[in-house]
């Protein structure tokens, strides 16, 4: 029992030292960035590949990410996902909105993809009879 407690204490100490070390660095490896972001390293590589996160490849096995770039990634994405005020449902009417079917045809996407975008960006929608309405302005911002 004592060995387990000792091992737990050592493990917690190593983890806390690692987190402090990662937080104080200006340049992070992909593994350190994944620890900091609490996501898999595969996801971090995907963000780099999609050019959402800046990184520099020194070689096949050495990629570094600036801490500043991680911070700006969050700032940009928080602004992008919160630009719509979800309490604007009362502003939605048939004159300034697309029905779901109109939006699907205009933007050439599937029904599921449209609903995922609406959910991801907190875009308000309103039921009007047999139609679901979404403001044109909100969808046009996303699909520009």
Gyration radius, in Å = 22 Å
Number of strands: 6
SSE string: HEHHEEHEHHEEH
Could you list the spans in which at least 5 consecutive residues all have pLDDT below 50? none
Structural class: alpha+beta
Strand order of the largest sheet: 1-3-2
Oligomeric grouping of the chains? single chain
**Helix content range of the residues, please?**
55-70%
Topology summary:
Blueprint (H helix, E strand, L loop, with lengths): L1 H23 L2 E3 H8 L3 H9 L6 E4 L2 E5 H15 L15 E3 H8 L3 H10 L4 E4 L2 E5 H8 L1
Antiparallel strand pairs: 1-3, 2-3, 4-6, 5-6
Give the key terms.
three-stranded antiparallel sheet, 144 residues, 56% helix, alpha+beta
Task: Give a verbal description of the structure.
By secondary structure, the protein is α+β, with helices and mostly antiparallel strands. The chain is built from 7 helices and 6 strands; from the N terminus they run H-E-H-H-E-E-H-E-H-H-E-E-H. Strands 1-3-2 form a 3-stranded antiparallel sheet. A 3-stranded antiparallel sheet has the order 4-6-5. A hairpin with a 2-residue loop joins strand 5 and strand 6 (131-135). Helix 2 (30-37) packs across helix 3. The longest helix has 23 residues, at 2-24. It is elongated. The mean pLDDT is 81.
């Amino acid at each position: 029992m004592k060995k387990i407690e000792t091992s737990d204490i050592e493990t917690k100490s190593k983890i806390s030292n690692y987190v402090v070390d990662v937080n104080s660095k200006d340049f992070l490896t992909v593994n350190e960035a994944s620890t900091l972001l609490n996501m898999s390293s595969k996801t971090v590589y995907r963000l780099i590949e999609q050019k959402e996160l800046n990184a520099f490849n020194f070689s096949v096995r050495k990629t570094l990410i600036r801490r500043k770039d991680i911070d700006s990634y969050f700032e940009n994405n928080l602004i992008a996902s919160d630009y719509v005020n979800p309490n604007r449902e009362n502003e939605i009417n048939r004159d300034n909105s697309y029905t779901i079917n109109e939006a699907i045809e205009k933007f050439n996407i599937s029904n599921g993809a449209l609903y995922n975008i609406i959910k991801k960006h907190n875009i308000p929608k309103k039921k009007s009879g047999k139609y679901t309405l979404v403001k044109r302005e909100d969808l046009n911002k996303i699909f520009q």
